[in-house]
Amino acid sequence: MPDVLMNDGAVWFTVPAVVGTVFFLLRLGFMLIGGEGAISEVELDASGDPTEAFKLLSVQGIAAFLMGAGWGGIAALRAFGWEWMPSMFFGLVTGFGMMWMLILLLKAVHDLQSSGNVITEGAVGTEGTVYANIPEKGSGRGQVQVVINGRQRIYSAISDAESIPSQARVRVTRVNEDRSLTVARV
């Protein structure tokens, strides 16, 4: 095994492969267990710029490049039987491919994040169902279920006119200052 990794110029691929793999796995392990000093690549920097996580020259990106270039070069040199120069080119292409895959994976993880905040103003014009009877105008509140941005929520509601019974369909006409909704029967 040492002959495969060290002779005939393979050492030029072995060193980056081993260094990149060890560093990549250590960093990944620290990120998974939340070890001290583990900074996730998908965390934002102090400026809040979300593109910072996807730069090619991140620490994790360099480790992925070294790992891909080293193992790709060894594979081309030993498994494919190529000469050193074509193996080096193949290793470089493999390294850049590993960096690209890492960026795509980090972006996919970043895109999984969601706010959870629902902007109530988006309710105006939507239809919903009365959850708890809404008394006539000025005599109290009821509750209504509406779907805003794909999320079903229950809000306090008042009527513009007559009382509205439970399970009736309503349309939101206004969002009040206290985040309650003014609704009208459909």
Tally the beta strands.
5
Q: Widest sheet: strand order? A: 1-2-3-5-4
- Rg to the nearest angstrom? 29 Å
Unreliable stretches covering 5 or more consecutive residues? 36-48
What class would the helix/strand composition place it in? Answer: alpha+beta
Order of helices and strands: HHHHEEEEE
Please report the number of helical segments. Answer: 4
Please state the overall shape, judged from the principal axes of the Cα atoms. Answer: rod-shaped
Mean pLDDT across all amino acids:
83
- Termini Cα gap: 77 Å
Question: How would you sum up this structure, described in words?
Answer:
- The protein has four helices and five strands; from the N terminus they run ααααβββββ.
- It has helices at residues 2-6, 11-33, 59-79, 84-111, and strands spanning 127-132, 142-148, 151-159, 169-175, 181-185.
- The longest helix has 28 residues, at 84-111.
- The protein has two domains: 2-111, no CATH class; 120-185, OB fold (Dihydrolipoamide Acetyltransferase, E2P), CATH 2.40.50.
- It is α+β, with helices and mostly antiparallel strands and 186 residues long.
- A hairpin with a 5-residue loop joins β4 and β5.
- 41% of the residues lie in helices and 18% in strands.
- A five-stranded mixed β-barrel has the order 1-2-3-5-4.
